[in-house]
Design a protein that fits this description.
Layout (H helix, E strand, L loop, with lengths): L9 H14 L12 H8 L3 H14 L2 E4 L3 E4 L4 E4 L6 H7 L4 E12 L2 H6 L7 E11 L2 E11 L8 H5 L2 H8 L4 E12 L5 H4 L6 E11 L4 E10 L3 E4 L5
Parallel strand pairs: 3-10
Antiparallel strand pairs: 1-2, 4-5, 5-6, 6-9, 7-8, 8-9
Helix pairs in contact: 1-3, 2-3
Bound molecules: 2-acetamido-2-deoxy-6-O-phosphono-alpha-D-glucopyranose.
């Protein structure tokens, strides 16, 4: 799989070859890769060269290292198109995965200045604060905190939030969800999130803020979430 006469650097050829093995299923998530020494001997190249190829794939999230155990093939990231306004439950079901939620907090609190501004409410108006770990096939994907006006969405219960909020809002309350404004930024997992997301200290997360509005323009929710960036990626269709 390595051509030493090729103008392509050897680390690049090895990287390409491992990537192909993952793409065509020769290597599957959880598989242990040969060690750097084994690759170096097998291909008759330096360990430095092997290390460079592997490090690039680790940085890309295709492989991960475990201290004392070796390098493994990572789970493929879930790809989410940022084109439709969907709920977590809908997204996971559309992929054939089973969504689940672990409820960390469910309470009615007075809106602070930021939440009040996002929901166009007066400060101290009662809002639901709902914190959930969102799981797909039992793997934690994101930690999500939702603020919703308690006067707008009536009758919310813990049981409802353990299933789907959007389902309740649309099907039970008959409110029409319209559009959302969403931002995504890079961050490092914090110590509160870390035990819930089951990632290592310093792991990168995608910080997402969403402001969702009903069709009539009323602000419905303000949501802050941290998505595991080793499991999630967002894609956008762009037209010219
Ligand atoms: C998604 C939305 C969140 C919404 C939730 C409803 C993002 C970043 N967030 O997680 O705003 O509250 O879906 O999900 O996409 P549910 O209907 O499954 O409870």
């Amino acid at each position: 799989m390595i051509d030493k006469h090729s103008p392509m650097p050897i680390y690049f050829q090895l990287e390409h070859s491992i990537r192909q093995q993952i793409e065509n299923g020769e290597l599957t998530p959880g598989n242990l890769l040969p060690s750097e020494r084994e690759y170096a001997e097998l291909l008759d190249v330096s360990r430095m060269t092997v290390r460079q190829a592997i490090t690039n794939l680790v940085n890309e999230g295709l492989l991960y290292r475990q201290k004392g155990r070796g390098t493994f093939v990572a789970e493929q990231k879930l790809e989410q198109k940022l084109s439709g306004l969907t709920s977590f439950t809908e997204d996971m079901k559309a992929r054939g995965m089973t969504p689940a939620n672990t409820l960390l907090a469910f309470e009615i609190i007075p809106a602070d200045a930021k939440v009040a501004e996002r929901l166009s409410l007066k400060e101290h108006t009662p809002v639901y604060e709902i914190k959930r770990i969102r799981l797909a096939d039992d793997v934690p994907m994101a930690l999500e905190t939702v603020y919703i006006s308690a006067n707008l969405v009536k009758g919310l219960t813990e049981t409802i939030t353990a299933a789907s909020l959007y389902h309740y809002i649309e099907e039970e309350l008959g409110l029409a969800i319209g559009h959302a404004v969403q931002s995504i930024e890079a961050a490092i997992v914090n110590e509160i999130e870390r035990p819930h997301l089951l990632v290592q200290k310093g792991a990168p997360v995608l910080l997402i803020e969403r402001n969702t509005f009903l069709k009539d323009g009323t602000p419905l929710e303000y949501v802050k979430s941290s998505y595991r960036s080793d499991r999630y990626k967002f894609t956008i269709d762009i037209n010219r």
